[in-house]
Amino acid sequence: QKEVEQDPGPLSVPEGAIVSLNCTYSNSAFQYFMWYRQYSRKGPELLMYTYSSGNKEDGRFTAQVDKSSKYISLFIRDSQPSDSATYLCAMTVIPNAGGTSYGKLTFGQGTILTVHP
Amino acid sequence: KAGVTQTPRYLIKTRGQQVTLSCSPISGHRSVSWYQQTPGQGLQFLFEYFSETQRNKGNFPGRFSGRQFSNSRSEMNVSTLELGDSALYLCASSLDRVPASYEQYFGPGTRLTVT
Description:
Largest interface: A-B, 27 and 32 residues
Shape of chain B: globular
Oligomer: heterodimer
Shape of chain A: globular
Order of helices and strands of chain A: EEEEEEEEEEE
Mean pLDDT of chain B: 94
Strand content of chain A: over 45%
Structural class of chain A: mainly beta
Order of helices and strands of chain B: EEEEEEEEEEE
Largest sheet of chain B: 7 strands, mixed
Helix content of chain A: under 10%
Strand content of chain B: over 45%
Low-confidence stretches of chain B: none
Distance between the termini of chain A: 37 Å
Number of strands of chain A: 11
């Protein structure tokens, strides 16, 4: 079983819809959670970054973390065709002196989203 | 501020050859991580460097190696290339300072094709 599970979709929605993207994880040590957007043939672009449980909002994007359920979500309001991309969740633990976690993000498989006009 | 840059962007190599990929992090970022992205396995962590030292390594064979220079630029090398090494190789940089240290910013990647 993968440490991070993400439904690959594809997900197709009409312009203006609210999009919900989700990931579940099994490692309870994960404390930092990120969402990346990746356009075709480009590198991932950091969208949201949250620590522990709670919500964070940035424009049309809202990230939610529920550590008790090991579940994170990204909501996109008023979706636009330019939001069409692959969305990747990523997470990491606090690096420790033992060096077992420095610089390592664990990613979900990514969800392919298409927003059609 | 300039983003993470990677060179070359595209590369075609033959089985058995070796390849070196280069990454220049965002100015001021001292940590550089490398990832391999394939359709089947997604993004997988290769290794991380900080102050010219490898601090962490993923589960890849010894054919995959890297290094970091005093200006934080990093290179990764793959020796004895196999067909399965065809992938997008991404590097990411971060400040490595709490609480910002865990945000990683990615470059555009180097697409390696092994024939």
